[in-house]
TrEMBL record:
The organism's place on the tree of life at top rank: Eukaryota
Protein name (database record): F-box domain-containing protein
Taxonomic path: Eukaryota, Fungi, Dikarya, Ascomycota, Pezizomycotina
InterPro entries on file: F-box_dom
Pfam families linked: F-box (PF00646)
Ranges where the F-box domain occurs: 11-46
Length: 256
């Protein structure tokens, strides 16, 4: 029997508690809510439920708050080891505003991050030992976060071994992907045009030996010639997906 005031589940053998948690995770459509409630009961249940609660983690944050959110969990080894799929959406202040907005507010619409955030961000991701899929949706923060983050990864020679799927906001920084994400099987990027980033695109597609799926979201229509250049830049990729600005079935020009 459990001590007075404690739920009966606490008195069960740990192996049985683990099986109960696995069962809840498999059959309950609201499993995350149920597991979150269990994690609040006691330390034992918290330890058991953490791998299920944080296996798939999504972080939606303003850029100026990113450092605080990372620092909050940076030393939590159990949580970091649990994360296998991570989606981070951060929005910065590098957004063009209408002149009327600038005059009326007299300041930027949002704050930005400090200079230490990109390096902390790189070190945080490097600590995720079991990470398999990473999606970085970084909006309006190319100068504040994306470029310094890429530089920090290179300077520290960080290698995200085991990460098989990566979504990154821009193709302009693709060259750093090759040494940092050597085990990639799926890569998803955005491209504004095929003129600037095509060399980095070609380098990534041909250097990542394990790459099988390459997805490119075009922010502007590249034209048929541009689409052909994209396909020719990735001859060994088994699946090439080009989509985005007004690209449809009529643009099909090559069977892969």
């Amino acid at each position: 029997m459990a001590p007075e005031g404690q739920p009966q589940i606490v008195s069960l053998p740990q192996e049985l508690i683990l099986e109960i948690v696995k069962h809840i995770n498999c059959v309950d459509p609201n499993a995350r809510r149920a597991l979150a409630s269990l994690s609040c009961v006691c330390r034992l249940l918290r330890v058991i439920t953490i791998p299920y609660l944080f296996r798939r983690t999504r972080l939606n944050v303003r850029l100026y708050r990113l450092r605080a959110r990372i620092e909050h969990i940076y030393e939590n080894e159990a949580l970091l080891e649990s994360i296998q799929l991570l989606h981070i959406r951060a929005e910065g202040s590098e957004r063009r505003t209408r002149p009327s907005e600038t005059r009326s507010t007299g300041r930027k619409l949002t704050k930005t991050c400090d200079a230490a955030t990109p390096d902390l961000f790189a070190r945080f991701l490097a600590r995720l030992a079991n990470l398999r899929e990473l999606r970085l949706d970084l909006q309006y923060c190319q100068q504040a976060l994306v470029t310094p983050f890429r530089r920090a990864v290179g300077d520290r020679r960080i290698c995200f071994r085991g990460v098989e799927a990566l979504a990154f906001p821009t193709a302009h920084t693709l060259r750093y992907v090759v040494p940092a994400f050597s085990d990639l099987r799926m890569l998803s990027v955005e491209m504004g045009s095929v003129v600037g980033p095509i060399s980095g695109f070609r380098h990534a597609a041909r250097s990542l030996e394990s790459l099988r799926v390459l997805e490119v979201r075009m922010l502007s229509h590249p034209g048929i010639a541009g689409l052909r250049n994209m396909a020719e830049a990735a001859p060994d990729v088994s699946t090439l997906v080009l989509w985005g600005h007004d690209i449809d079935a009529r643009d099909t020009f090559r069977e892969r």
